[in-house]
Design a protein that fits this description.
Strand content: under 5%
Shape: globular
Order of helices and strands: HHHHHHHHHHHHH
Radius of gyration: 21 Å
Number of helices: 13
Length: about 300
């Protein structure tokens, strides 16, 4: 084996490690992001969302130029069909971001954790309904157990855990739509933030002229935090994209539990949200369902 072969195989062997580190970093950022938004709780959730959109677009557009994807970006915005698809995905991700921020600022971090634990199982259901994927017995059992967990929580509290379900469903549909959109992650996110930027800027100008805006009115610290919301938006997505390209989908699926696990720990041990026996049973059933789902995914991958 010559030197070029050695370098080639060395690069190949390092790719899964780089991918796992990148994906884990993305999920850790998302998992600990409630700390960031808790600091910003003096600012209304919708206003935080508007800043998150605008500053993300300001960062992402130069990245498109630097990465040499400007032609692809122009092609996407000229495609009527792709723009329709991305407009729908924009509405879904904006709703998901807004509800996530609102839930954190209203002491509902535990519900966000439950929502993102449920998300993989909602993905399975959407795959079955829209992509005609078939559920094997193990995955069917996992979905049923998770459904029973949500039903148990609903019966005892007398209402659906709507925050958890809305987060899971909006993100699952967002993933489904982006799966069929002919655009990569960076260009797609740039277009999505571009679509929202104009109305977001208009809303922030309205708040400022009405004397209700937060930026440049509260403190320099709040100003910096609002501008830096971009760093809990764009970098983790880019890290996630790097990871997704270098590791197997099964590995990525298991790593994604890092984020809701972090938010769960924050909710219970840092922010002291109530964790009753009812929630113990619900989370226990969801975790059990995810264990079945993960083991079956690994088994299927090995068989292939």
């Amino acid at each position: 084996m010559n030197d070029s072969d050695t370098k080639y195989y060395s690069t190949i062997s390092k790719e899964p490690i780089v991918g796992a580190i990148s994906a884990s970093a993305a999920f850790l950022i998302w998992g600990f992001s409630p700390i960031y938004f808790k600091i910003l709780r003096v600012v209304p959730a919708f206003e935080i969302l508007m800043h998150r959109v605008i500053w993300s677009f300001v960062l992402l557009l130069p990245l498109i130029l630097i990465s040499g994807q400007w032609n692809e970006f122009k092609t996407v915005i000229k495609s009527y069909r792709t723009m329709i698809i991305l407009t729908v995905s924009t509405i879904l991700v904006a709703a998901n971001w807004f509800l996530f921020i609102w839930a954190i600022n209203n002491n509902q971090i535990l519900q966000t954790s439950l929502g993102y634990y449920i998300n993989p199982l909602v993905n399975v259901l959407l795959g079955m309904v829209f992509l005609k994927e078939r559920l094997n017995p193990a995955k069917s059992v996992a979905v049923i157990i998770a459904g029973l967990g949500v039903l148990y929580l609903t019966v005892h509290y007398g209402k659906l855990p709507w925050i958890s379900l809305t987060l899971a469903v909006t993100f699952a549909f967002y993933g489904l739509i982006r799966k069929v959109a002919p655009v990569n992650a960076l260009v797609g996110l740039t277009v999505e933030t571009m679509i929202l930027s104009l109305p977001a800027l208009g809303y922030l100008i309205y708040l400022d002229t009405a004397g209700m805006g937060s930026i440049f009115r509260m403190s320099v610290r709040i100003d910096i935090l609002l501008i830096c919301t971009v760093f809990v938006t764009a970098p983790p997505l880019l890290l996630f994209t790097i990871g997704a390209r270098k590791i197997h989908l099964v590995t990525l699926g298991i790593l994604q539990y890092i984020a809701p696990s972090c938010t769960f720990l924050l909710a219970v041990f840092i922010y002291n949200e109530p964790f009753t026996s009812i929630q113990v049973w619900t989370f226990g059933m969801i975790w059990f369902a995810l264990i079945i789902y993960s083991i079956d995914s690994v088994r299927e991958y090995r068989k292939r």
